[in-house]
């Protein structure tokens, strides 16, 4: 447990910051609409979420959830295959819940246009080889198909799902939740950890088009690169987004 007198910076950039003091997380966000969505989504979600302690704009205080995160990009997961399957089952429970009343914010309205713009930026600035960008651009195209919206988390990174043993104890960071593509959630959850995709799908308990999941891996990695770079993160770190693009088939 973090020391009560110690303030830890969990994440901080020019859009928002999250601090930890003991077992309390303080989320500071100038855009209160994101906090509104987070609170509304946690109230509706049929899965474990953090307890809300108080809200005093621009700060939201949340209690820490028990357990261990599924893992981090570039590192072996510290939890079992059964824990990943439990995460898949929790996601299915969320996706089967009634739709929220607001639209999702995880994807832009023009996902194709955003993809084109980000690929152009990557090649124009020599961030990645043009052939690698173009190959992943073709793979990402598979994600653009008809789909039925579900109650989606919208930013279901593996660091946002906590487990104890094979039980999900909490899912955090709901500010992108809304109506969304179920396979996008599954893709974000398994990004960089393809070895656990089968576990998640087994827990999810439905037929999944794995080509679409892989397409969203490419889309997410291409479209996140500029934002990550501009906000102090490193998509070129081992096992991170650029490695995902290199391994795409």
UniProtKB/TrEMBL annotation:
It comes from the Bacteria. Residues 40-212 form the Aminoglycoside phosphotransferase domain. InterPro entries: AGP_Transferase, Aminoglycoside_PTrfase, Kinase-like_dom_sf. Gene3D superfamilies: 3.90.1200.10. It holds the Pfam family APH. SUPFAM superfamilies: Protein kinase-like (PK-like). This is Aminoglycoside phosphotransferase.
